[in-house]
């Protein structure tokens, strides 16, 4: 019964979508205000219906209703309660319902918080959001219905939630990511509305920016969380694999970052309007492309949902209609958008445009790398895979370039071009950062027994110190010239926090790759090994039982000299529902350094293959990532004077 | 000039769309095996529930499906009824019980039915390694001379049987009559 209520709610939501789509057109046709006034109630109605559906699905999980196919495939009576809830979005159908819920939320947000834009403009935006909702809702109802029943005989027991997903990180990872992906539909709708109306006022882009910032911040947090999860859950010690699905989230993020910066230029100077509009379309288009790649089976990935050609075709058609439609609109009406004259010379605008060029290049590089296996297969050039060597090769220098220009922009001004002044400002930071970095890297080599000179560490320190020192220089100058108002400005504060976050992230990435040690060994209980100044003693091997699994657990003691510093207990779990064996790594961290041990395979009687890592500074990657997200949220609180 | 620039994104997108469309027809799971056209690797293992030691010689004489399965493999449960159905139709299937526990495997077959003429017990995955198995379920089509004709990674269902195995299997059977 409950599943049917959920099903009916979805169908009713479809109806509200159609109405949301149609009422703005009726307004344009008949000029009767009533059509406009309907948009808010419709948006709320739509959200409530989707929410009802979502709650119904959740209830089906909580009461173990295995007659619902989706519940039977993804849950189990032994599954802990919190995972029964997260199983709702654990697979394709349910995660689509979550997508709809998030989209419904953002749509309602635009309906209620759009007071600074005209009712007509808002209604156009809501139309666009309604078409997107309509597309996904049709997809959901016709190809991916979570409420389908298994009749006449329901299974007594479910298949269980994939053990990899039975984890805190994976509970909140999809909701965070979707808030980001789906949130980018708002600037998308904004761009379409601008193209339809043919002009864009400054207040409008000012209105849109917080929406961009918040969606971007959520996407940042979602990606960071996913990386952290992969690190502690997958057992390989890696935190980014350039997997197609990871890339599918990185590409919209890169474009959204470019959009954040370009919309700042457009708001302040009224320039590069067409470019900002294009980026707004591109960001959500990449979200849609990502949805397609993950759910259509076109690319192989550990992440991909179960493949089905029918779903693939549907998604491709949606992609064609939404992205194709918006880009056609852009091609035909883009020239109507008026833009101010670009200022010449070494201005902040120039530096932000360089930033955009770099970020767009990085996006194209990732896109090529992600799609190349597909292109190669179709053109019969062979089945290949593109991995870290390709991506790292391009990403490292472009990130360094980004850092360099980020520092330069701190000493630049809006509109005014004064290259010599900027150069004078950066001399001192540059000198300090070069000398300190060289000093630190050589000091590390001299004073620690475990780390030798490393070029990548040197470059990392230079980039990180450069970012910090130029920021400090800028704040110092503003304090000196009594521009305290600028510092208190939430935009500036958010930017500072986010840029610091990026510096910390670069520090984590650079130092952990420069100074990590890794050993893959065969060990049996009682044996010890020495790595990077530590002695690891494989003390014992236990067999233990959890709520829905049994496991082999290795206990490792960590010694420095004769001091016992602590222990870790990696496990190899076998879940009762009969799925593959899962690895739980044993990690010990003091923030500056991670000790990471995971069990590989049992070999012979008592021996196991064991992976031992010592990874300095790896935590900083995620601390940096979350800080970037926080910066984005802070910046969105900026109250703009009209 | 501006018009050209403005049209560039849509053109680029349409190109990408074309590739994605063709990509849908592509099967990413179709990973060609390096052993196609080659003999089954040599091995010396015993069957499940029996003391007989088997080598690859005992597999010669008739075409068969070699199905890699295990009790820890969830998808194998989904595939199993299809195998039972195929064995009822007279298709010869030999199992390769891969990296599994003997008692669990025996119980599993008692529980769900045994479509296999016999199952090779490969707890350490030695034969699996030589065959290039990287997961379960996988199914190989082997001819009467022990040559591997086809490999399928993933669940063998009716559609895949019809498209990839059926004609080849019956052709091989006819060839030795």
Describe it.
The complex is a heterodimer of chains A (642) and B (177). With 642 residues, chain A is of the alpha+beta class. Among the domains of chain A are: 1-165, no CATH class; 418-516 and 621-629, no CATH class; 517-617. In chain A, 64% of the residues lie in helices and 12% in strands. Chain A has 20 helices and ten strands. Chain A has helices at residues 2-30, 33-37, 39-62, 69-74, 81-86, 92-113, 119-143, 168-183, 185-197, 202-234, 244-269, 273-296, 309-333, 348-378, 388-410, 419-447, 455-480, 484-488, 490-515, 619-635, and strands at 517-523, 528-531, 534-545, 549-560, 563-568, 571-575, 581-584, 586-589, 593-603, 607-616. In chain A, the strands form two sheets. In chain A, strands 2, 3, 4, 5, 6 and 7 form a six-stranded antiparallel β-sheet that branches. Chain A has a four-stranded antiparallel β-sheet with strand order 1-10-9-8, with helices on one face. In chain A, a hairpin with a 3-residue loop joins strand 3 and strand 4 (549-560). In chain A, helix 7 (119-143) runs antiparallel to helix 13 and helix 15 packs parallel to helix 17. The two termini of chain A are 52 Å apart. Chain B has 177 residues and is an alpha/beta fold. Chain B has helices at 2-25, 74-88, 102-112, 126-131, 158-175; strands spanning 44-47, 53-55, 64-69, 93-98, 119-122, 138-142, 148-153. In chain B, strands 2-1-5-4-3-6-7 form a seven-stranded mixed β-sheet. Chain B starts with a helix and ends with a helix. Chain B has one domain: Glutaredoxin. In chain B, a hairpin with a 5-residue loop joins strand 1 (44-47) and strand 2 (53-55). Chain B is elongated, with a radius of gyration of 21 Å. The A-B interface holds A 159, 274, 278, 281-282, 285, 292, 296-300, 307, 309, 312-313, 316, 319-320, 323-324, 327-328, 330-332, 334-335, 371, 374-375, 377-378, 383, 574, 577-581 and B 2-3, 6-7, 9-10, 13-14, 16-17, 19-24, 26, 28-29, 31-32, 71-74, 77.
């Amino acid at each position: 019964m409950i599943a049917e209520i959920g099903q009916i709610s979805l169908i009713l939501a479809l109806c509200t979508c159609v109405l949301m789509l149609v009422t703005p057109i009726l307004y344009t046709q008949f000029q009767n205000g009533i059509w406009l006034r309907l948009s808010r109630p419709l948006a709320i109605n739509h959200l409530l219906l989707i929410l009802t559906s979502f709650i119904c699905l959740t209830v089906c999980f909580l009461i173990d209703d295995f007659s619902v196919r989706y519940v039977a495939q993804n849950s189990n009576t032994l599954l802990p309660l919190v995972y029964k809830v997260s199983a709702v979005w654990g697979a394709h159908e349910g995660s689509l319902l979550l997508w709809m819920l998030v989209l419904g939320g953002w749509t309602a947000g635009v309906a209620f918080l759009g007071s600074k834009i005209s009712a007509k403009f808002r209604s156009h935006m809501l139309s666009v959001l309604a078409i997107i909702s309509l597309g996904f809702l049709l997809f959901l109802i016709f190809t991916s219905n979570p409420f389908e029943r298994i009749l006449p005989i329901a299974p007594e027991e479910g298949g269980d939630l994939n053990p990899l997903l039975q984890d805190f990180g994976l509970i909140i990872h999809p909701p965070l990511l979707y808030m980001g992906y789906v949130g980018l539909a708002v600037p998308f709708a904004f761009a379409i509305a601008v193209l339809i109306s043919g002009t864009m006022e400054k207040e409008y882009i000012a209105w849109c920016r917080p929406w961009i910032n918040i969606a971007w911040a959520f996407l940042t947090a979602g990606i960071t969380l996913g990386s952290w999860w992969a690190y502690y859950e997958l057992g390989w010690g890696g935190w980014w694999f350039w997997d197609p699905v990871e890339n599918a989230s990185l590409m919209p993020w890169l474009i959204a970052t470019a959009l954040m910066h370009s919309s700042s230029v457009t708001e302040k100077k009224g320039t590069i309007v067409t470019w900002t509009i294009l980026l707004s379309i591109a960001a959500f288009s990449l979200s849609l492309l990502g949805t397609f790649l993950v759910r259509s089976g076109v690319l192989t990935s550990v992440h991909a949902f179960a493949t089905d050609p029918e779903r693939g075709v549907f998604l491709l058609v949606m992609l064609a209609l939404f992205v194709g439609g918006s880009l056609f609109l852009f091609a035909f009406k883009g020239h109507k958008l008026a833009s101010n004259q670009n200022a010449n010379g070494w201005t902040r605008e120039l530096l932000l445009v360089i930033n955009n060029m770099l970020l767009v290049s990085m996006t194209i590089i990732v896109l090529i790398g992600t799609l190349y296996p597909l292109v190669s297969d179709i053109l019969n050039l062979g089945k290949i895979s593109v991995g870290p060597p390709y991506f790292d090769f391009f990403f490292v220098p472009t990130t360094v370039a980004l850092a360099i220009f980020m520092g330069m922009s701190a000493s630049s001004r809006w509109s005014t071009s004064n290259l010599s002044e900027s150069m004078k400002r950066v001399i001192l930071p540059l000198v300090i950062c070069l000398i300190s970095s060289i000093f630190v890297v050589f000091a590390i080599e001299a004073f620690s027994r475990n780390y030798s000179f490393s070029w990548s560490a040197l470059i990392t320190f230079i980039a990180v110190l450069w970012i910090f020192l130029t920021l400090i220089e800028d704040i110092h100058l503003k304090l000196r010239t009594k521009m305290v108002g600028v510092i208190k400005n939430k935009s500036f504060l958010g930017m500072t926090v986010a840029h610091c976050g990026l510096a910390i992230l670069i520090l984590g990435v650079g130092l952990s790759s420069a100074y990590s040690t890794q050993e893959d060994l065969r060990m049996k209980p009682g044996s010890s090994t020495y790595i990077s100044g530590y002695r690891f003693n494989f003390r014992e091997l236990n067999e233990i039982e959890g709520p829905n699994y049994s496991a082999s657990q290795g206990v490792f003691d960590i010694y420095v000299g004769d001091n016992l510093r602590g222990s870790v207990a990696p496990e190899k779990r076998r879940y009762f529902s009969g799925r593959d064996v899962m690895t739980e790594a044993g990690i010990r961290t003091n923030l500056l350094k991670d000790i990471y041990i995971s069990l590989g395979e049992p070999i012979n009687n008592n021996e196991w293959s064991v992976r031992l890592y010592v990874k300095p500074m790896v935590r900083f990657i995620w601390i940096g990532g979350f800080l970037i997200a926080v910066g984005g949220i802070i910046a969105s609180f900026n109250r703009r004077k009209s | 000039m501006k018009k050209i620039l403005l049209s560039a994104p849509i053109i680029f997108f349409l190109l990408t769309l074309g590739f994605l469309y063709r990509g849908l027809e592509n099967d990413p799971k179709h990973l060609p095996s390096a052993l196609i056209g080659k003999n089954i690797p040599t091995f010396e293992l015993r069957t499940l529930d029996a003391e007989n030691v088997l080598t690859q010689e005992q597999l010669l004489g008739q075409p068969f499906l070699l199905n890699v399965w295990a009790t820890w493999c969830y998808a194998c449960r989904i595939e199993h009824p299809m195998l039972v159905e195929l064995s009822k139709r007279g298709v010869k299937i030999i199992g390769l019980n891969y990296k599994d526990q003997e008692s669990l495997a025996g119980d599993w077959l008692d529980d769900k039915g045994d479509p296999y003429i016999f199952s090779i017990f490969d707890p350490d995955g030695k034969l699996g390694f030589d065959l290039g198995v990287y997961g379960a379920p996988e199914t190989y089509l082997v001819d009467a001379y022990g040559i591997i004709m086809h490999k399928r990674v993933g669940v063998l269902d009716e559609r895949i049987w019809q498209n990839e195995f059926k004609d080849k299997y019956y052709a091989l059977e006819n060839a030795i009559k």
